[in-house]
Amino acid sequence: RWSLLHQQSAIAHLDGDLDTSERLAGEALAVFGGVSPSRALASFSGQLLILRVASGRVDELADAAQQLVNEQPGVPAWRAALALCLAKHEPERAAELVQSSLIDTPDDFTWLAAHVIGARAAAIVGRQRTVREFIARLDPYSGLVCWQGTCSYGPVDLVLAMLSSRLGMDHAAQRYTRRAIAQSEQLGAPVFAEELVRWNSRHTEIADKTQG
Hints:
Blueprint: H1 2-15, H2 18-32, H3 37-55, H4 62-71, H5 76-86, H6 91-103, H7 111-125, H8 128-138, E1 145-147, E2 152-155, H9 156-166, H10 170-187, H11 190-211
Antiparallel strand pairs: 1-2
Helix pairs in contact: 1-2, 2-3, 4-5, 5-6, 5-7, 6-7, 7-8, 7-9, 8-9, 9-10, 9-11, 10-11
């Protein structure tokens, strides 16, 4: 039942039905929490993170992400998540966290998810060296979609488009954007195309402020 609820939640997220997705993820947490509290909470937190990304409210999870970092300091993915939560309001700390997550990310099943989340933070913070390192690491995975285990963190090309546009690499950004949109359409997942639209709008604002 726990696995089924997570899968239903993941599908609702892809459909852009964020309220239903969060409700189902909460039900999964309630079902499995008594069996394996730490695993249930980690799964729920991973799903809630991408739901808040989709709604543009990821900063609301800063306290919860900090708690996960405190409890599991050896998990770079949680540092990447905290960096994303802090990127808009505490960019210096976010930059340190995302760089830390790059240094010691283990080569295991969490690698791609940690990088896709960290890349979102890096694109917002905008430190060129870090952005370039994420592009170098993620470009070999262009054409793939990141699945965290219980949900999807979207096409790798989505974050590559964000990173490239942050560096002013317009042709590369357009190429990655086309791929990400095509993959989103193939998945029947408008939620990721919508995230790119929001990013492009925000990036334009950042560029205007920088030029001003």
